[in-house]
């Protein structure tokens, strides 16, 4: 069965389909030794030899992982400053390299999806698909209802106005003047929740992501990971248009 070149590249775990198109246009992809610079080319995955940056690529088994990223780890595979990354948690434990889906801040913890399926990763992080990300957020102070309403409607940050979000006070302690919030976001700007709360003077003491779409953190402990079950993978693949 013939297959579009960019889809084959994505299916091989190199990158997302959109990024694969950029690689093609940049002349970094060869089929049977010939440089391809136009989109829409179809190949036979069983017969044709595809190279990206002069390296032959082949489809690999897709891995879908839920990782509990601890505080103090970067959501990346490499850091030029030598800080710990999720690679330190996963290396020597997997047969194939996986990549983080989106980000979770250095000083935040909780659920981080990792996969070598670039196409699926793009669907999860793209705001167009409005995948809910759910967080537990411990803050100094107790937000007022009118402030929560503004968060729900969207507030102005450096990038623009945030998408409508869900902010709910789960519990509050008047003596310690602390509260636990449940926050549901449909986008993922850098340090978004912290910056939103800072607009009204609230300091985040702890931030933990507990769910992405239909995938839950569950009983994982910091640093642990698990492979997604069949139902979770089915949900991920249902995101394809």
Helix proportion of residues, in percent? Answer: 10-25%
Strand content bin: 25-35%
* H and E order: EHHEEEEEEHEEHEHEEEEHEEEH
**What's the main sheet like?**
9 strands, mixed
Class of the largest domain in CATH?
Answer: Alpha Beta
Q: Based on helices, strands and strand pairing, what is the structural class?
A: alpha+beta
- Number of structurally distinct domains: 3
The total beta strand count reads 17
From the coordinates shown, what is the CATH architecture of the largest domain? 2-Layer Sandwich
CATH topology category name of the largest domain: Alpha-Beta Plaits
Shape: elongated
Question: Count of helices?
Answer: 7
Please state the CA-atom Rg, rounded to the nearest Å.
Answer: 21 Å
In CATH, the homologous superfamily of the largest domain goes by the name Pseudouridine synthase I, catalytic domain, N-terminal subdomain
N-to-C span: 20 Å
What's the pLDDT, averaged over the residues?
92
Low-confidence stretches: none
Protein name: Pseudouridine synthase
GO molecular function: RNA binding; rRNA pseudouridine synthase activity
Domain RNA-binding S4: 3-66
InterPro entries: PsdUridine_s_RsuA/RluB/E/F_cat, PsdUridine_synth_cat_dom_sf, PsdUridine_synth_RsuA/RluA, PsdUridine_synth_RsuA/RluB/E/F, RsuA_PseudoU_synthase, S4_RNA-bd, S4_RNA-bd_sf, TruA/RsuA/RluB/E/F_N
């Amino acid at each position: 069965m013939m297959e579009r070149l960019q889809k084959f590249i994505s299916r091989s775990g190199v990158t997302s389909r959109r990024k694969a198109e950029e690689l093609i246009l940049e002349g970094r992809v060869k089929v049977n030794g010939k440089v391809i610079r136009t989109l829409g080319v179809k190949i036979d995955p069983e017969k044709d030899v595809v190279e990206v940056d002069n390296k032959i690529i082949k489809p690999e088994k897709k891995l879908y992982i839920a990782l509990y990223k601890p505080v103090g780890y970067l959501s990346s595979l490499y850091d030029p400053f030598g800080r710990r990354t999720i690679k330190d948690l996963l290396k020597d434990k997997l047969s194939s390299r996986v990549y983080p889906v989106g980000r979770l801040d250095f000083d935040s913890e909780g659920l981080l999806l990792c996969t070598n399926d670039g196409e699926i990763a793009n669907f999860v992080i793209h705001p167009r698909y409005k995948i809910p990300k759910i967080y537990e957020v411990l803050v100094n102070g107790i937000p007022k209802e009118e402030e929560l309403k503004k968060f729900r409607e969207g507030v102005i940050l450096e990038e623009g106005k945030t998408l409508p979000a869900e902010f709910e006070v789960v519990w509050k302690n008047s003596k310690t003047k602390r509260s636990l919030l449940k926050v549901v976001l449909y986008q993922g700007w850098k340090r978004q929740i912290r910056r939103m709360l800072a607009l009204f003077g609230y300091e985040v003491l702890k931030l933990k992501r507990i769910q992405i779409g239909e995938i839950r953190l569950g009983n994982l402990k910091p640093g642990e990971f698990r492979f997604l079950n069949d139902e979770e993978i089915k949900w991920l693949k249902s995101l394809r248009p």
